[in-house]
Amino acid sequence: MYNITDLLNLEDTNLNVTSIISEGTVKTITIETDVTSHYCPCCGFRMHSRGIRQRKISHPILQDGCSLFLLLKQRRWRCTNNDCRYEINDSFRFVDKRRRSTNATDMLIISSFRELSYSAADIARKFKTSDTHVLDVFDRYVRLDRLPLTDIISVDEVYTDMADDCKYALVIQDFYTGDPIDIIRSRRTNVTEPYFTSIPREERCKVKYLLSDMYNPYIAYVDKYFPNAVPVVDSFHVIQWVNRSLDNYIRNLEKRFRQRDRELQAQKSADAGHPVTLPESDELYMLRKYRWIILMNQDNIWYHSDLRMDRHFHCMMNTYDYEERLFRIDQRLERLRDLKELYVQFNSRNAGRPLSAAEELDDLIAQYFYSNDGIFVSFAQLLVRYKEPIINSFVMVEKQGPGKIYNSRLSNGPIEALNRKVKDLKRLGRGFRNFEHFRNRFLFATRNNPTLDGVEDNDLVQYFEEDDE
Is the CB of residue 422 less than 8 Å from the CB of residue 443? Predict the structure, then answer.
C-alpha cells in the first residue's frame, strides 16, 4: 500500500487503494481514507457518516502512454448535535477543492516547460487542459532574477520582434557555466543604460573580460559600465567578415556570368526564330556548387585524389581538378583565398599567445595593406580599428567541464549557441507577445539549476531534480 502511494507521489498517509482497473489506455485507481472517529470542530460533538461521494480526477504521473485517473471516495460527515448540524467532507492533501487534477499536475506542467521543443499548446494537450491554464501555472511559479555577474561575460543580440521597443533583445551569458545571466528586452541605450547602472558598481568592477562581436555600442560598454574590463572581439566574427566579403565577390561574378548567358540565349533564340534553352554554363556551375573551396578553411577541406564522374563536365574529376577549374574562372579567386588563409592560420596558431599574436598581427596588417586588393585593404583597416579587442581574444582561461578542468580560448561561440535556442523557442512558440513570459521561459529552460522565486518551498525544485533523473 505504501509503495503504491509513494509511487503515485501522494502526500496523505491515511489512504487505502481499494481497486486498480485498466481498460485499454485508461487506468483508474480507487482511493479512500481510513474510517476514523470524527468530532465537530465547532461544538465537539461526535459526527456521523452520511454516505460516500465519488470524485474522479486526473493524475498525469507515471502514465506510460496511458491516462491515469484517481477515483476518490469522500465521506460526508454531519455533527450529531441538532443545534449545530455542521457538515464536512473528507479532504485529500494532494488535490484542492473543485479541481479536476492533482497538485502534482502543476509540477509536471512546469517541468515540461524546461523542454524548449514544447509549446504551451503541446504541454496543454499532454496534460489534457487548456493552454491558458498551463501558461497561468508557469507564470504563477516561475519568476527568475538576474544571475550575479562573473569576471568573464558575453553579450549578443537576438532578433525577437515582439514590439517596436523589443526588436533585438540583449542576451548576457556567463562564459564559465554557459548559463544566461539575463535577457533584456532591447539593446537600445535607453533600455541598457538604466539596466547596467542599476547593478552595484562593486559587482560591475569584478568583470575583467567583455566578449562581443564588432558592434561598437557593445565594445563601449567597457568604458561606460565595466571600468576594470577589457573588450574582446570574437575571432569567429572577424573571419566571418572576410568570408562574407569573399562570398559577395563570388555572387557578383555569378551575376555577371548569368547576365552573359541570358544575352547569349536571347541572341541564339533570335537567330533560330524560336526559344532556345541553353545548359548551365561551366562558370555558373562551378561558382554555384564549388564556392565552398574558397570559403571553407583550407585545413578543413578533404582533398580526395580518387577520380569521380562529374555529370556536368562528363569526365572523371577530383578536388584538385575542381579547384583548378574554379581558379581558371577568375585569377583573383586564388589570391583572395590565399590572403584569407593567412589570417585563418594566424588565428589558429596563436591561441593562448596574445603577445605573439600582437607582433604577428602588425605584420599581417602591413601585408594586407600592400596587397592592393580592395577587400583586404578594407580588412586591414578593420584589424587596425579592433586591434586590441582582437588580441584579447587569444587569452586562454580555465573552465570547468564534465568531471575535468580544461583551457578554453575566449570566444563568443557559447552565446551564439545560446541565441540559437532563443530562435528555436520563438519559432516553436509561433511568436510571443509578452516579453516577461518569454524571458522567464527562456531562462528557465536554459539554466542548469534554475531557482524558482515563485515557489514558497523546495518541493517543486526537488521534483524537477527527480524528474531529470
Answer: no
User: Structural domain of residue 299, as residue ranges?
Assistant: 238-336
| Run of H or E including 456 | none
Number of domains in the chain: 3
Cα 205 to Cα 221: distance, rounded to the nearest angstrom: 12
The least confident of 19-28, 71-80, 325-334, 452-461 is 452-461
Q: Are residues 8 and 88 in the same domain?
A: yes
Whether the Cβ atoms of residue 69 and residue 27 lie closer than 8 Å to each other: yes
Cα–Cα distance, 56 to 69 (Å, whole number) = 7
SS3 (DSSP) at 308 = strand
Q: What cell numbers appear for 248 in the block? A: 559577395
My answer on whether 296 and 271 are in the same domain is yes
Nearest to 229 by CA among 413, 395, 400: 395
State pLDDT tens for residues 282-297: 999 999 999 999 999 9
Query: Same structural domain for residues 244 and 200?
Result: no
49 lies in some domain: yes
Closest CA to 208 of 384, 347, 359, 397: 397
Residue 394 included in any domain: no
Read off the pTM.
0.78
Is 293 within 8 Å of 301 (Cβ atoms)?
yes
Q: Read off the CATH number of the domain in which 445 is found.
A: 3.30.420.10
Q: Is residue 273 part of a domain?
A: yes
Q: What is the distance between the alpha carbons of residues 125 and 359, in angstroms, rounded to a whole number?
A: 61
Query: Cell 507515471, residue?
Result: 62
Q: Letter for the amino acid at 329?
A: I
